[in-house]
Specification:
Rossmann fold; 16 strands; alpha/beta; 6-stranded parallel sheet; single chain; 8-stranded mixed sheet
């Protein structure tokens, strides 16, 4: 063993200070928002925490209350920007760190932090989305290490890495982290591969996705009333990913067939089976190439008038906690967005994942339902619809499995945050942390 010494913090009797990166609250992706809201609400409300500073893509430093909570967080804008002279630019942050801070508020918060915790958007610590996205994901991790602070990688997926440079960068960051969590057993294996043969279990841990701990919030009365009026119906939720709707996306992610055609046929089959289908967007905003509503536009155009009358689009502007409240009232759910299905799983709603990466099977596996996932890279069309309908038919049995597994997963979602808080308190008291070489 060796001991890593961290930059000193002025002695104080108050609580610990944490910087949270990789999950901004104002995000068009409700999955990323669910991650940030879950962690921020828990950490900011902990008696031991004096200040929680969240990094986001805004400008300047702002203090705001968390939604539906008495907790308050500090939000600090930082981004990859061509306006490198601005303090919110990562280029400027690197320069200011090298020159002692120069009054940069982010540099000050990093220097004062008892821990820098990072989520990487849950599944963005990969070069699959290109070098610019990887730069954005790595920037706060590298800034934490430059400031000499303990870096904690909260539960997430690691990889895939398709380039030598991307993998080496990830290996360096993982091995420099004081603690790193994976969000399922499959991701834990990938984490250990990056950590190398000397990886020690005290540092590289298996956890669960923090969004399992997101507390649902009731939406406005009109939406709640619409769902209440469906009592007696078999209500199912369908999430289609706008990211996968273009032909180019099929080629990029290696999909087995026509994604929109498959999802359309799935909706048609569910309606034919007597279900009432609620269409659930989980990414909504100003980036049309990823907007789930655009995928539903294509599906809607392919439905007959009678099929359309058996569907309803949930308000795509709903925030993550309110979406979870709605999903929790469904009898079955299917989706391609990972965190849309997590909203179902964590509510013990039987779910079927139709995804394009290995991450879904690992997360479903934490709930004992790894068999409820189909890989869109392997099957499409009639075969995918058949598997989805088999899952729909087995929903009662799957619900029983979830009721057995999910409570422990939800408990683990907060236990791992308690571990981080205890470690941060110890690091502050000692001024160092033991790290296996």
């Amino acid at each position: 063993m060796k001991t890593n010494s961290y930059a000193p913090i002025e002695a104080r009797e108050d609580g610990i200070r944490i910087v949270l990166a990789g999950a901004p609250l104002d995000n068009d992706n409700r999955g990323v928002e669910a991650l940030g809201t879950s962690v921020a609400t828990y950490l900011a409300g902990a008696p031991s925490v004096e200040r929680l500073s969240m990094l986001d893509g805004g400008w300047g430093v702002r203090t705001t209350p968390l939604p539906d909570s008495s907790a308050v967080v500090e939000r600090i804008g930082v981004r990859n920007s061509r306006r490198w002279h601005r303090r919110e630019s990562w280029t400027r942050v690197r320069i200011d760190q090298a020159l002692g801070g120069l009054g940069n508020p982010l540099v000050a918060r990093l220097t004062q932090a008892d821990a820098v915790v990072d989520l990487s958007g849950g599944d963005s610590f990969t070069d699959l989305y290109g070098p610019q996205r990887l730069d954005t994901v790595c920037a706060p991790k590298e800034a934490a290490l430059r400031s000499g602070r303990p870096l904690v990688l909260l539960p997430q997926t690691y990889g895939p890495f398709t380039t030598t440079d991307g993998r080496r960068r990830a290996e360096r960051l993982v091995r420099s982290a004081t603690i790193a969590y994976a969000r399922d057993s499959w991701s834990h294996d990938r984490l250990l591969e990056l950590a190398g043969p000397d990886a020690h279990s005290s540092r590289f841990r298996e956890g669960v996705d923090v969004a399992f701990g997101l507390a649902p919030q009731r939406p406005d009365d009109a939406i709640a009333a619409h769902l209440d009026a469906l009592a007696g119906e078999v209500v199912v939720g369908v999430n289609a990913s706008g990211l996968l709707r273009e032909v180019s996306a099929g080629e990029r992610f290696g999909l087995a067939g026509d994604y929109i055609g498959t999802m359309t046929d799935m909706v048609k089959a569910l309606v034919a089976a007597g279900a009432y289908v609620v269409l659930v967007s989980h990414v909504h905003g100003k980036h049309p190439l990823e907007n789930d509503s655009a995928a539903f536009d294509l599906i809607d155009d392919a439905l007959s008038p009678s099929e359309r009358r058996r569907t309803w689009r949930l308000d795509p502007t709903l925030r993550a906690a309110r979406l979870k409240w709605c999903i929790a009232r469904m009898d079955w759910f299917t989706g391609s967005r990972m965190h849309a299905t997590i909203a179902a799983l964590s509510s013990a709603v039987p779910a079927f994942g139709y995804a394009y990466s290995d991450k879904a099977r690992g997360v479903f596996g934490t709930c004992g339902t790894a068999d409820q996932v189909a890989d869109a890279r392997d099957i499409a069309g009639a075969e995918a619809v058949e598997q989805a309908m088999a899952s729909f038919s087995a929903r009662d049995e799957v619900r029983r499995r979830l009721e057995d597994h999910v409570p422990a997963v939800v408990d683990r979602a907060t236990e791992q945050l308690d571990e981080v808080l205890a470690a941060a308190q110890a690091w502050r008291a000692e001024g160092s942390a033991e790290v296996v070489a």
